[in-house]
Write a structure and sequence with these properties.
The protein is an alpha/beta fold and about 210 residues long. Helix content is about 30%, strand content about 20%. It contains seven helices and ten strands. A ten-stranded mixed sheet has the order 1-8-2-3-7-4-6-5-9-10, with helices on both faces.
Length: about 210
C-alpha cells in the first residue's frame, strides 16, 4: 500500500521530496500535483517504473504516450532534437507553464520506449512539487494525467480521494492541495510552427 504525504506547493519540504524521489528511483509510481491537474508518474530511467505506468494505462510500453516533466530546459536537448532558436525562445517564454509541447524525439526516447517513437510531449509545470521532484531524481519524470471515471468531472482534483482510490496502485500520493480540472494546452512544434492539438489551461494565442 502506498503512503500519503502532504507537501507545500510553494515551499516543498525537501526531505519529503527526496523520499518521493527515492520511490521513483526504485521503480515506484508517485501521484503528484502539477499546475493543471494531478498526474501519476515514473522515473524515465526505470524500466520497472515505466512498465508499471504503462500497465496502469492498460497499454504496452512501446504504445504508451507519456509526457516528460523537466525541471527547466537545460536537459531538453538530450530527449528532443531538431529545434531551432525561435522554438527555444517560445519554450523559454512559455515555461514553466500549463503547456505540453510535442517535439521530435531523440534516440534516448526511442530507447526508453523500446520503439521507433518519433515524438515526445514535454512539460515544465509551474508547480514546485514536480519540478523539485525531477531535480532530486536527476532526470525527467514520465507522467500521465489522472482521469476521473465520471464523464462530467474529467480529472481528479482532491489528493485524499485520489489516495483512497489509488493506494494499491501508487507507491506514494503527494497532496499538494486541490488542483484544477483543466489539463495543459497541447501544442505541436514538430513542423516548426506551433499547432494547437488540444486547448487547455494555457492560452495558445499568447505563444
Amino acid at each position: 500500500m502506498g503512503y500519503y504525504v502532504k507537501i507545500h506547493p510553494d515551499n516543498p519540504q525537501m526531505l519529503k521530496i527526496e523520499e518521493a524521489a527515492k520511490i521513483l528511483d526504485k521503480g515506484g509510481l508517485v501521484v503528484f500535483p502539477t499546475d493543471t491537474i494531478y498526474a501519476i508518474g515514473a522515473s524515465s530511467n526505470s524500466s520497472k517504473g515505466l512498465e508499471a505506468l504503462a500497465r496502469f494505462k492498460g497499454l504496452k510500453l512501446e504504445k504508451s504516450k507519456f509526457s516528460f516533466l523537466f525541471y527547466d530546459l537545460s536537459h531538453l536537448s538530450e530527449y528532443t532534437k531538431n529545434f531551432d532558436t525561435s522554438t527555444y525562445k517560445l519554450l523559454k517564454r512559455s515555461l514553466p507553464g500549463p503547456y505540453t509541447f510535442v517535439m521530435e524525439a531523440s534516440s534516448v526516447i526511442r530507447k526508453i520506449f523500446k520503439s521507433k517513437k518519433k515524438e515526445v510531449g514535454i512539460r515544465v509545470p509551474d508547480n514546485n512539487i514536480p519540478r523539485q521532484l525531477v531535480k532530486a531524481l536527476g532526470h525527467p519524470i514520465a507522467a500521465t494525467s489522472l482521469h476521473h471515471e465520471d464523464e462530467i468531472i474529467e480529472y481528479r482534483i482532491d489528493a485524499e480521494l485520489i489516495y483512497e482510490d489509488y493506494k494499491h496502485i501508487a507507491d506514494a500520493v503527494i497532496d499538494g492541495g486541490v488542483c484544477g480540472n483543466i489539463a495543459s494546452t497541447v501544442v505541436d512544434l514538430t513542423s516548426g510552427e506551433p499547432e494547437l492539438i488540444r486547448a487547455g489551461k494555457g492560452d495558445f494565442e499568447e505563444l
